[in-house]
Amino acid sequence: MLDDSFHVFDTTLRDGAQREGVNLTVADKLAIARLLDEFGVGFIEGGWPGANPKDTEFFRRARTELPLRNARLTAFGSTRRAGTRAADDPQVAALRESGAPVVTLVAKSDARHVERALRTTLAENLAMVADTVAYLREHGQRIFVDCEHFFDGYRYDPEYALSVVRAAAEAGADVVVLCDTNGGMLPADVTAVVAAVRERTGARLGIHAQDDTGCAVANTLAAVDAGVTHVQCTANGYGERVGNANLFSVVGALELKYDRRVLPEGGLREMTRVSQAVAEIVNIAPATHQPYVGVSAFAHKAGLHASAIKVDPDLYQHTDPALVGNDMRMLVSDMAGRASIELKAKELGIDLSGDRALLGRVVDRVKALELRGYSFEAADASLELLLREELGRPVRYFEAESWRVIAERRAAARPEASAPVAGGRLVSAVEGSAVGSAAGGGVRRAGSESPRGSADVSPFLGAPAAALSEATVKLHVKGERVIATAEGNGPVNALDRALRTAMEGVYTALASLELTDYKVRILEGTSGTDAVTRILLTFSDGRGEWTTVGVGENVIDASWTALEQAVTYGLLRQGYPSRV
Ligand SMILES: CC(=O)SCCNC(=O)CCNC(=O)[C@H](O)C(C)(C)COP(=O)(O)OP(=O)(O)OC[C@H]1O[C@@H](n2cnc3c(N)ncnc32)[C@H](O)[C@@H]1OP(=O)(O)O
Ligand SMILES: CC(=O)C(=O)O
């Protein structure tokens, strides 16, 4: 067990679960608790037993399924109801029966809340606090008291707020936690209030800060400066409304800035992994710009930054990313300089150091392409193909002579649709920009059947319909001209299938490549449909992912550019020697 002189108290499973959009199962809660325990927090607040069946079940299963190495499990609940005895309050009984060694009791400490929300007297509220603490202590549980709305209450009626702290401490609470429940405090005020409460009560104090002014982490650290020895936080800052103090930011600051050991050996290096794993379980995409653990936390874009980082990464980083299990990354864009390209190439395993002319050419090409709408910062694979081209080692497995896509949408099985239409009028065909050139003779032909189009049964704007696309590609692969046709549920899917069909006998590993993400962004244009389109395609081969970028006025053409690169890069990853 950790040193008890300073507590890192995690409330992801209680306050974190109060975030809009979060709905954890018991299994999710157990999995998160295991991660937090491994990470090394001192206390894990598991929920409110008795408030809902799920939290009651969590504490029941935790007895056998949650052997904790570092943390102590904590049950949350409120002080007894007004006008009852703690021993008769079913909610207090649920806390006792939870089996948790520690209980956090939420208590009113703002006189207005006592009178208007609880609708009881100030004296009865003090008795509710003291009775409940004493009762649970007698039953062998360790007690922390969360003084709800403490800071607002202290401003309104400091003597009453202080009397709640004293009532809790005198009844046997180990820690009295001052809560900024509405999250409206600023750091300097927190420091001043905490210092005054310490001086006037002598109680061991903690802090629980909501993030409504964006100051939860700063307020938590301000309270530490004033002497609290217990900090309540949540993983990734999840919590009611805009959230709580982010556990990872607080722990990062305590360990790396305050030089205070609050985690067991090795815990800090797990921080990025734990943050991402919790986000995965909670089913919220990890916040990319989160301090310490975000994927962008050590991503450098500006050329000037890169040029100094080349000399020493510390010149542009507040700490070593490896200490928190994160990585430094270079982003290449139109803000890049030669140093950015050199460092990025190194990251990709290509040594360009010293070749100023080549680096300069790459910078110029990147800037020119970005002006046209390309974006390389999210498309490392495209950048690597470009670098290899500039090095005089272009990667090619095929050459596209042409491609053509037909997109068709059919009204779903109307009885009259199958009958010949009499008296229809033929109107002129309109020129399209995505049609390939005519076929030659004497070639291999490959075909792929895609049995179904996407059956769009949405009733939106009309009757159900089926959409289907058919693509034909004409390629040169290893000296042979190949024509392949395939169907797909959309034009890009059909092109992807046709491309694979054309090469499947030649590059068998193609089967392991999978399109996992397709992003479209409309760049500036005069109207919605004639604007320039940027496509980002992400592929996976089961071992890793890579992203490529394509730009064009025609969305299918832009997609093709990205697709050609993605497949090329995928084949390079499979180890095929480059040749046409
Ligand atoms: C600041 C925080 O985030 S604290 C954590 C808050 N978390 C939650 O509320 C989530 C879980 N809550 C619940 O499931 C339900 O609200 C329950 C089970 C706790 C209570 O449900 P209900 O009995 O239906 O009461 P309801 O939610 O309407 O109101 C809360 C009651 O608790 C009382 N109460 C509130 N705080 C306290 C307190 N510190 N001590 C004693 N009683 C309290 C209120 O006065 C109100 O009493 P009333 O029923 O006599 O009006
Ligand atoms: C206890 C708690 O969650 C709060 O006061 O915000």
Describe the structure.
The protein is of the alpha/beta class and 580 residues long. The chain folds into four domains: 7-282, TIM Barrel, CATH 3.20.20.70; 299-371, no CATH class; 398-411 and 435-506, no CATH class; 509-580, Double Stranded RNA Binding Domain (2-Layer Sandwich), CATH 3.30.160. It has 17 helices and 18 strands. Helix 5 packs parallel to helix 7 (158-171), helix 6 (150-156) crosses helix 7 (158-171) and helix 8 (187-201) runs parallel beside helix 9. The termini are far apart. It binds acetyl coenzyme *A and pyruvic acid.
Q: What's the layout of helices and strands?
A:
Blueprint: E1 7-10, H1 26-39, E2 43-47, H2 53-65, E3 72-78, H3 90-97, E4 102-108, H4 111-118, H5 122-138, E5 142-148, H6 150-156, H7 158-171, E6 175-180, H8 187-201, E7 205-209, H9 216-225, E8 230-233, H10 247-256, H11 271-282, E9 299-300, H12 303-311, E10 329-330, H13 338-347, H14 356-371, H15 380-390, E11 399-411, E12 444-448, E13 454-456, E14 465-477, E15 480-488, H16 491-503, E16 514-522, E17 533-540, E18 545-552, H17 555-573
Parallel strand pairs: 1-2, 1-8, 2-3, 3-4, 4-5, 5-6, 6-7, 7-8, 9-10, 12-15
Antiparallel strand pairs: 11-14, 13-14, 14-15, 16-17, 17-18
Helix pairs in contact: 1-2, 1-11, 5-7, 6-7, 8-9, 12-13, 13-14, 14-15, 16-17
The structure holds acetyl coenzyme *A and pyruvic acid.
Acetyl coenzyme *A binds near residues 107 and 118.
